[in-house]
Amino acid sequence: MKYLKLLFIGLLIYGCKEEKPQQNLGLTTSLYDTYEKYRESELDKRRIKHRDLQNLISDHQNDPGVTVKKVGESIEGRDLKLISIGQGTTDVFLWSQMHGNEPTATQAIFDILNFLKSDDFSEEKSEILNNLTLHFLPMLNPDGAEVFKRENKLGIDINRDALRLQSPEGQTLKRVRDSLDADFGFNLHDQSTYYNAERTEKPATISYLAPAYNYEKEINEGAAMP
Ligand SMILES: [Zn+2]
Q: How many Å lie between the centroid of ligand 1 and the Cα of residue 151?
């Protein structure tokens, strides 16, 4: 899990830098070495719940440049909150845990907020925050997380609800997506450990699925991104 979360931070930084990957090896190592400093220890358990996030969100609300907005509610009345930071013209929208039993990216979001709040890596962080505005919606399915289940309270898989929009959580996601009209969207999931990097025995640490933009599955500029 440590690797996934680190790579996630690395991805944000590399996305903004124009240096060649080779030059970033030092940065990768520094991030790896200092990771424990940013790891959110309040979210150590595998089964994290909505109430575990609320104090953390309230704390981060006071971080420089952070705004927090309630954007909706789950069926059982749990608040869905959008945490935004950055002044860049490129908007990035990242939501986690639409499957209640997939907590890793929710944990990663709070690691990233700790990382952004710290005084370290200031050069890299100003690159990120001057180029991007990051919008995090952690734990889109808090009712599912409460009972460590994939579906929401009504048994709806929110990842299959994009067209019907039967769930309030799916409706919130659509409304926020439409209002941000973000340049990049990350639908963050856990992945079974059975997946390997292609033609190797190494387990996949992080995977990207970029859905095709048309039925012919052609590649356009957006789909060519990792
Ligand atoms: Zn999932």
A: 10
Centre of ligand 1 to C-alpha 187, Å, is 9
Q: How far is the CA of 54 from the centre of ligand 1 (A)?
A: 22
pLDDT in tens, 183-192: 999 999 998 8
What is the domain partition of the chain in residue ranges?
Answer: 2-188
Which residues are bridge partners to 137 per DSSP?
95
What's the pLDDT tens digit per position in 81-113? 999 999 999 999 999 999 999 999 999 999 999
pLDDT per position as a tens digit, 18-36: 555 556 678 889 999 999 9
By three-state DSSP, how is residue 67 classified? strand
CA of 102 to the centre of ligand 1 (A): 6
CA 176 to ligand 1 centroid distance, Å: 19
How far away, in angstroms, is 108 Cα from ligand 1 center? Answer: 15
CATH of 2-188, one of 3.30.420.40, 2.40.128.110, 3.40.630.10, 3.40.50.300: 3.40.630.10
2-6, 96-100, 145-149: the lowest-pLDDT one? 2-6
C-alpha of residue 82 to centroid of ligand 1, in Å: 20
Taking phi first (over 0 means left), then psi (-120 to 50 degrees means alpha), and beta for anything else, what does residue 191 get?
beta
Sheet containing 90-96: order of strands: 67-73, 79-85, 132-137, 90-96, 184-188
